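User: Can you write out an input/output pair for a complex, sequences first and structure second?

Assistant: Here is one pair. Inputs:
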Amino acid sequence: MDRGALLLVELGAVVLALGILARLAGRLDISPIPLYLIAGLALGEGGVFPVVTSEQFIEVGAELGVIFLLLMLGLEYSAGELVAGVRSVAPAGLFDLALNFSPGFVTGLVLGWGVVPALFLGGVTYISSTGVIAKLLTDLGWTGNSETPVILSILVFEDMAMAVMLPLLGALALGGSTSGALLTIGIAVVAMTAVLTFAYNQGDRIGSFIFHRSDEVSLLSIFGLTLVVAGLAEGVSISAAVGAFLVGISLSGESVARAHSMLAPLRDLFAAVFFVFFGLSTDPREIPDVLGVAVILGLVTAGTKLLSGWYAGRRAGVGPNGRRRTGLALMARGEFSIIIAGLGAGVAGADGLAALAAAYVLIMAIAGPLAAKLADPGRGRRQPRSRIRAEAGS
Amino acid sequence: MRKIEEMSLPGVGLRLQFVTADGDRIGVIHHRTGRRELFVCQAEDSDTVTLSLDLSDEDSHALAEVLGASTVVESLNDLQFQVEGLAIDWLAVESGTPYAGKTIGDARIRTRTGVSVVAVIRDESPYPAPGPEFGIESGDTLVVVGTPDGIESVVTILKAG
């Protein structure tokens, strides 16, 4: 077979395998993310079936996956919701940050990694999985509970914190000088403030410019705009992901629901590719060495999320049951931990960051929702008639 | 009418709820996906949903019908429509009002609050577009249009002058 044909067959086989895994995840009622990661580990160097021909293509696909994940995350929120959300939970959000960033950071230092890789691990343990948690709330019928606005606001806070963290970590990963890093952060903050202010006041106008009666026109416009902005953001080193997030936030109005349904299939495809790529570039032979650390880190950060959830719930005047559920829901880590780890994988001195992050997310993406289900099976919820589809990012 | 609390759930949709006289919390979540979820939290643990149901359009109409929404006209007084910062409201003129027997012009409603009285309902007959010389009587219902804040002020004016 020539190279082109081989590429198609290999790529098709990978995507087909992902389809089977997504089906399995739906059957088992778990997030598909861990399964995609395992698939990536099996396909990478040192894995069971190393993929060679299509790795380059998968790498580009993975980059698109991050962009789509963040674009869709941004689409979920309007600028007004972000501002209100961050404001309403600021103290609890900061507590959550301090409590859940520290375990990863300290572990990194204890492993002898140096400050920069340790910061990445802090990011990995800090950020909860918006996708996994959104699905969990729906599946357990928790959406009407009084703690749900608290959970969602904490997630909004974390997402904003990540948008600040990504350029910061990116600058540190490049190993530039302190002043260079500060300049990058400055640019990021100015750009984000400008975009948020503009979107806050003019969101509808941007929407009416981009959206069109024809789905084709809308899709091409959004996709093109996102790639251009993401590329420009990457160019001034505030990370493509943040650029895509800002585009998502800027688009608001009635057409967002339509954009959501147009882009969701693309997001599902490329996000899956992204998780596989992360697994591909992680050496599975390193996993056994870090498994113990991942388990301990998982236990500790499950506890810290419980604490920060409890505190956030109490501040919002929610009763003990709701406070407990806030912590339980926030335990799950997923896509964003992997995005942060992916950014830090190339940093010097971070031996085993990718493997540790992969093992950690494998545990937390499954154990988090499981803990929530066991602790509070949701008394009144009947099984939904149509199973909610297992999605990578929502 | 009960105070309906409206709350945006970022990334999920909009939640409308109220607390019943017995302390139960009832609400509807309008998911962005178009899903409409009815939920109930009982007073013993008002944080926890004990029942959650998905309602289709037809289900919602049927439920509203069962609850007697067809008699909505009777409770016109309680209805308040809000359109993008503009509110229409039906204000009952209570017997203690200082403006009984005086005219709309005397109350200087529009000058003071920017709210227009578009009609007066007296003994179930409407008097559309009343002028400033129109006399107010206790027992009247004023149909007013303005900002929600302005209408709040009119309520105060009618009570206390």
